[in-house]
Amino acid sequence: MIKRSGILILAMASLLVSLAAQAESAAQVFERFKLASGGARWDQTHSLRSDGTLKTGGLEGHFEALIDLDSGRSSSHYQLGPVEGAEGYDGAVGWNQDPGGEVASLDAPEARRRALSQAWLDARGYWYPQRMAARFGAAKSRELEGRRYVVIEATPRDGDPLALWFDTATGLLARTVQRMERDVSTTVFEDYRDVDGLRLPFRMTSDRADFSGHTDPRARNEIRLSEVVRNVAVSDADFARPEATATARIVNPDGITRVPFDLASNHIYVDGLVDGQKARFLVDTGGVNLLTPAAAKKFGLEGAGKLAARGVGEDSVDLALARAREVRVGDAVLDKPVFYVVELGSLAAVEGVEADGLVGYEMFSRFGVTIDYAMRELSLATAQKFVAPPAAHAIAFEFADRIPIIDATLDGMAVRLSVDTGSRVSLTLHSPFVREHDLVSRYAAAAEAITGWGVGGPTRTRPARFGTLRIGDLEIGGVAGDLFCGDKGAFSSADQSGNIGGGLLRRFTVAFDYASRRMYLAPNATFSAADAFDRSGLFLLADGEALKVADVAAASAAAGAGLRPDDRILAIDSVQVASRTLEQWRQLLRETAAGTKLAVRFERAGEPLQATLVLADRVPSISPAHR
To answer: Are 581 and 564 contacting, i.e. CB atoms less than 8 angstroms apart?
Structure first.
């Protein structure tokens, strides 16, 4: 009886706490927070300047920030190891300045929403709705790690929702929780101190958790302030987007350089130089300047820090930062470039091509870039000398995290697509968009299989034949691509509908003018040709004088032939594998007619075996959307 009474008392106490939280309105919670952190003193506070240190990924350096509370404008600058950068919000759009000095205005809708939510927090919109308004959910009670909180969900006008957690013992804001593109960001506010009549947190720690709740310590950011000054003078210039650091040039009088490239699996490879030493780069609009650890060592560069990098694969990998003297592609030069040092794992085996790394956003943002897929030529030009290709269609784009985003329609559906020369596939649709529109059924998608490989490992998708993709006034038919159905990696983002890759871009001469936010598409002779798609069901890797089977699609030709992952193929149709490149074998397996029988000689665990591969369509020649 005593135990039951104790349980009853505890249950009643818990109920009373819950009812108290529910009975308390959001306005009352905010007022209690205001009283606990300075009260009316906030009414006479218009700006805050803070200085301190930033720690992330094993790096530490100086951090400073300036906030205009009346408008929500902000700017911050940091120095970490060998690099420095900045970010801000000018009252209309967010911007960032990368370690290499490149500056981007983040004007895509998803970037604007996140910037507005942060501006609402900075403006203390929960106290001053005349500055920035928001909608609020009911106050709810929560308990975490032995502490009780009142939690209110807020949705700033035109912003993203976020949850505000208030400590019931102190009344102070203890944390914010916000869903981001691919994860959940939690910022914890601690070490509140008195500052000229205000109580402000001097320690802020931000973690990102995937949707299963896992956090990566490499992605943690910790800011410790040493000083906060109230009501410093501010001007528009304090929050304006800065000019890019002048570190790019074309070292010839024409202001334009033309470089031949190789195309392998729809990926562009060019030769270049790092600090005068020969380098081989993959050209990637969706990426950053990057070196593998082996390449960085070869070039005498030492990476600093241990941060986390993520790509289309499910896993994150280590990332370090290194600064070179210069990187050069043709006569285009970037001085003092910062390289992200990332292990690309099986890339050489996946591509059948050795590469030292990538050139990406930093190069595209500095020059006008033209990719002539038909002629296999990459052109880089100064802004004054850049000219769009003849008969090109101009397509406006926006930036979200340095990646161009365009609007288009696919079989009558409005889509927002990232443009990524680093993807081999013509069109990959993201899982939230796939689920929302039931596209697996609509397109009668094939069985899930490995269709690509990037940072973080392999990507499993469901191949499909789409109907008509309309970009501007261009109608593109016969597109074969895939549907991503997973919950991790870049293709799980709900911010875009999908991703355009090299399989589609190769139908054009493509030009990018990042300064004007324009992409130009000039159809070439292959424009009207429908995409061929693999008829074997094999995802193959280069493996010395053999092809290693990485995956076998269910109900495919390879499955029917009895091939398995880890088999090593030595000959196809009596031709030794070593006599052709990986790309040539992939081309044969997608372009050879369905029904063709190919003799396959392979080994399994050292035992020699043979099979007959009868090629079969995995996607139809005509999209179900057009039937």
So the answer is: no
Token digits of residue 426: 């013509």
For the chain, what are the domain ranges? 2-238, 248-358, 393-523, 538-622
The answer to whether the beta carbons of residues 413 and 437 sit under 8 Å apart is yes
Q: What is the pLDDT of residues 31-55, one digit of tens each?
A: 999 999 999 999 999 999 999 999 9
**What number of CA atoms fall less than 13 Å from residue 68's CA on the CB side?**
20
Return the CATH number of the domain spanning residue range 538-622.
Answer: 2.30.42.10
Please identify, in words, the CATH class of the domain defined by 248-358: mainly beta
Virtual CA dihedral for 109, 112, 118, 122, nearest 10 degrees? -150
Spatial contact of 306 and 317, defined as CB atoms under 8 Å apart: no
Element (H, E) at 400: strand 398-400
Identify the helix (H) or strand (E) that includes residue 128: none
pLDDT of 309 over the 90 cut: no
Whole-structure pTM value = 0.88
Specify the CATH number for 2-238; select among 2.50.20.10, 2.40.128.600, 3.40.50.2000, 2.60.40.1190: 2.50.20.10
Per-residue model confidence as pLDDT tens digits over 348-361: 899 999 999 999 89
